[in-house]
Design brief:
The protein is mostly helical and about 170 residues long. It is built from 6 helices and no strands. The radius of gyration is 16 Å and the shape is globular.
Length: about 170
């Protein structure tokens, strides 16, 4: 998290609580970036693989829940900016899925090529999540009141729980 993000978070703190969708999204973003950074920076192939096994389900669950409970809601608005934001999010999630699959399919986590893919994943993830933090979270504040953001948060949490159970059962 950059210094600017930390300052923004402190300024938003009075209006955000743990049940607010914005808080939940921010926490997931921070966790995913930490895992991706640790994976990229690791010198151990085994550790890289272990971190990837944590990162992939966390990102898949987050992405699918965010698509269903946030992007789909934004697509219902008439404002082109909100709709564009949602469609861009869908596309970026697809790119992240492709990068994760490429990393998972490679057995050689010690190679420069693998590390290059891990770096691109990290940088892309940072860009995607910074964009959401700077554009989408303020839009959620502008277009939804406290109760509505908490309702979005409950649906997001429920969607993540369902997806997590589904992944574990697979």
């Amino acid at each position: 998290m950059t210094l600017i993000d930390e300052i923004k978070l402190l300024l938003e703190a009075p209006t955000m609580n743990a049940r607010d969708i914005r808080t939940m999204l921010r926490q997931d973003h921070d966790e995913a970036i930490k895992l991706a950074r640790d994976m990229y920076e690791s010198e151990s192939g085994d550790e890289r693989r272990a971190l990837l096994r944590q990162l992939k389900p966390a990102l898949v669950v987050h992405s699918r829940a965010e698509e269903k409970e946030v992007y789909d809601v934004l697509l219902k608005f008439a404002e082109p900016e909100l709709r564009d934001m949602a469609w861009e999010g869908y596309v970026e999630h697809g790119v992240l899925d492709d990068l994760l699959e490429k990393l998972l399919k490679s057995r050689k986590t010690e190679t420069d090529e693998w590390k290059a893919h891990a770096k691109v994943l990290l940088e892309f993830l940072e860009h995607h999540m910074e964009d959401e933090n700077e554009r989408m979270l303020p839009a959620l504040e502008e277009h939804f009141n406290d109760d509505e953001r908490e309702a979005l948060g409950r649906r997001f949490t429920a969607a993540k729980s369902r997806l997590t159970m589904k992944l574990r059962a697979a």
